Amino acid sequence: xxxxxxxxxxxxxxxxxxxxxxxxxxxxxxxxxxxxxxxxxxxxxxxxxxxxxxxxxxxxxxxxxxxxxxxxxxxxxxxxxxxxxxxxxxxxxxxxxxxxxxxxxxxxxxxxxxxxxxxxxxxxxxxxxxxxxxxxxxxxxxxxxxxxxxxxxxxxxxxxxxxxxxxxxxxxxxxxxxxxxxxxxxxxxxxxxxxxxxxxxxxxxxxxxxxxxxxxxxxxxxxxxxxxxxxxxxxxxxxxxxxxxxxxxxxxxxxxxxxxxxxxxxxxxxxxxxxxxxxxxxxxxxxxxxxxxxxxxxxxxx
Amino acid sequence: xxxxxxxxxxxxxxxxxxxxxxxxxxxxxxxxxxxxxxxxxxxxxxxxxxxxxxxxxxxxxxxxxxxxxxxxxxxxxxxxxxxxxxxxxxxxxxxxxxxxxxxxxxxxxxxxxxxxxxxxxxxxxxxxxxxxxxxxxxxxxxxxxxxxxxxxxxxxxxxxxxxxxxxxxxxxxxxxxxxxxxxxxxxxxxxxxxxxxxxxxxxxxxxxxxxxxxxxxxxxxxxxxxxxxxxxxxxxxxxxxxxxxxxxxxxxxxxxxxxxxxxxxxxxxxxxxxxxxxxxxxxxxxxxxx
Lengths: 302, 290
Fold this sequence. Notes:
The complex is a heterodimer. By secondary structure, chain A is mainly α. Chain A has a single domain (69-295), classed as MetI-like fold (Orthogonal Bundle). Chain A has 14 helices and no strands. Chain B has 16 helices and no strands.
């Protein structure tokens, strides 16, 4: 305690406070703020990690938008994935949560079962889905064949690769479902009872009570869902042929960035891509925040 | 009650209709459960089949002959024991450092007053919005300059400096603990280091377990880190090993599924043992939405 001698109580308190958050400050500077600034500068250079780092102005951005065909492919693939995956996951998550919120037997058991796939992740899950989606021996096409449908080649048909990944990620929708469920359970019973007395049907009650009451969670999930969907990488890296194929149909934004940075060592070029992604994600998040005033309902809020 | 029953036939009674509804929903849920569990069932079933049986149509739900030796053959056809040990090592250290550093930092953000605290915490939350790939290239450059490539340091050291979501999660728990407890300990002459380690950590055990589980899942399944930083084969982790294995055995699905089952077993075990802590983590997330 000698160390603190002669200091005022409040200073002593503050010093200890800084000591506790000190690791975070260091980590923030070294692993977040510093790298952000470095890559912002690198975005305007031809940095290649070994020999050169010359300032080249907007040349990287010009190349991205004007000449790089693969870049537009990557943007298209990513937007395709985001636009389909985020709404699908939201709708399925809400519907499953509503279903699990009904009076039924063994609800705890079903909650566990529906939630479990979202815990499973990593390469093992990708390998499992490669087998499920296999055109010749996979479960999905075998089941389709049993009802007389000739299934697509999924991961080998450029038109079906992205739907295949969307389907796979839909399997893990249980995490968001649980989030909705926790909020559904806090919707007051009286609201439904009152609506029923007023003659509102099931569908009306769903759209007029259930959905508005859980819009804050839906909003939260949409925001985080957009941020993470834009960053899809691992699934594509493992499940595509030759990192992005067939026919670059799985070349997502981050996969292309990865190839530029760590296979061709075009680090300046990759930094430019990284900052564009950052800007896009920020714009979409701000847009979401702006739009949220129109549809998110906060109880007791203005 | 009895007058009611006498007036109306059974199937028109309120109780009967409620029961019918309940069973209909249950039936529907059973259907959904079958769909959701079928991939896992299929994985285990495929891992035990022979290759001929895998390509047979119509497919067999339960393998005709249980080829348990698939597991042994798959395991021995690559240095999986080495990969497993590496992964366990990285996971154990990762979980321990994450629990320690994040509870330490979160304590500072919730139980000590100091100028700039609120601003800094807003920055903590803000960092969660930054896509990981934006800092990936500079971090790689940094670790390359430090000559840390092909060591475990890039995978372990950042964990010492906290993770935004974990800090947030533990802080939520600290906020539920009355400040009077800290004040009383301070009057008794305890400093914050003592209060954090002796008084607070035991009180927020559920939060620590939740963070521990999430860190476990993150480390066990980490793919990007080892892919980027590890080059030599004897340092590979299970996730990288699985990708390499897939490259060598191609569509030898029974071996692939056997190796996948082994990689998923720890995750599934932890899930069933600590289920309620998973739910705890979800509840904290739901607190973020307000």
